[in-house]
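Reopening this one. Same input as before:
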Amino acid sequence: MAVFGLRTSNPAFNRYFWKKQRSFSKSKMSIGGIILKSFAMLTIVLISSSYTWKLFFSGVIIKWHTAIGMFLAIICSLFISFKHSAAKYLLPIYAIAKVFFLGGISAYAHKQFPNLPFQAIAVTITTFFVMLFLYKTKLIRVTQQFKAIIISATTTIFLFYFIGWILWFINIDVSFLWGTSWTAIGFNVVTTIVASFSLMLDFYYIDKQVGRYPKEREWLATWGLLITLVWLYVEVLRLMKKLAIRF
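Same output, byte for byte:
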């Protein structure tokens, strides 16, 4: 069963990415390989974020760093989408670009509410391991109905964000997206929960692909995990910032 033609809420795990491209090696993708690459990318994230923070707190205006980082991350994703073999070369660039974006919004949040980004990182990491535990112990099973709910919810959320961004550019405020009302906080709670459960879909599809696809595809799997983790962190940070403003 597919929802809107999709089998996962994460574009990196869409069937399109896993049907194309022939194997370059006889070795198959493994959990260990994905974990190693994920840690490597997170190390790049840590180093890059330290640089962005140093710039911000030394008085440099990082507005353009944030905007260019977001734009470059989109370009890298498009290239990876069409040229899968380039993932291992572009993923480090994608990670650095994302961190310029994330480092920017995190630095602004830290200036307004000291240590808030560190708390958001802790919540994100904890959520990752909680979801992994729930998946491995099968306390929550990834059924067809579960997938349908998460995919539908994710599609709806990103549709709201897309419309909200368009309206924001023409100076129309969408308070339940960007405001700090209880409705806005409630929306953020829902998006954070959906982002959390999206991790379980990522675990599910990695499980299905391990041992079947060539080792080069570990880069695509790592890219998929980064997409969800970045989304989860942004939602957690936004939610915590709204709560801090309210209280």
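So the earlier flakiness isn't reproducible anymore. For the record, Residues 37 and 222 are 7 Å apart (CA to CA).
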